[in-house]
Amino acid sequence: MMDENQRRSRFRKVCVFCGSNSGNRQVFSDAAIELGNELVKRKIDLVYGGGSVGLMGLISRRVYEGGFHVLGIIPKALMPIEISGETVGEVRVVADMHERKAAMAQEAEAFIALPGGYGTMEELLEMITWSQLGIHKKTVGILNTDGYYNNLLALFDTGVQEGFIKPGARNIVVSAPTAKELMEKMEEYTPSHKHVASHESWNVEELGAYPGQQSKQQ
User: Fold this and answer.
1) C-alpha triplet 105, 108, 112: angle, nearest 5°
2) Residues whose CB is less than 8 angstroms from the CB of residue 22 and which lie 6 or more positions away in sequence, other chains included
3) Which of 71, 132, 154, 204 shows the smallest number of beta carbons within 10 Å?
4) What pTM did the predictor assign?
């Protein structure tokens, strides 16, 4: 059984990027449920893409059934595609994908990518880029289930070797094969990269407060 310090996370809300499909193997569904269980154990609310199908549906139901708040943010155009049957928790409908990502970034204190397709990877890479630029100071994690993201992580390493990614910026990404190990690494993460622009130079109020900090907005 986890002790009290382990159960209480530094994060109150985590945004999970994941697919509206479940993938071809059971291991991906298991990973979504495992991550949901880990969020519940650590008393963390979920922010996600608002769908009720695929991995999105699995993790949202698990966190909701575990007694924690679930916020789904979905563009109006995707509602007929990504919502089938009843959703759980709070659903916020937005105009487009840009508004969806901005709202998810504002609400969450950290980001995790489960296995997914182009959309999941695009959301993940944008949060990595925003961290590099200094737009946010939030931890970005990858749940590398059964090596799904091995090639992407190798590409990041190639980017360092070829001079396109600074070594410190490579460390923006926290990855692990299991939800428990990933959350432990994210809890202990300390940024080591230099921001391209100062954090203060961006309109950071749009992204809300960070863990352990108060919002500048009064």
Assistant:
1) 90
2) 28, 29, 54, 55, 58
3) 154
4) 0.86
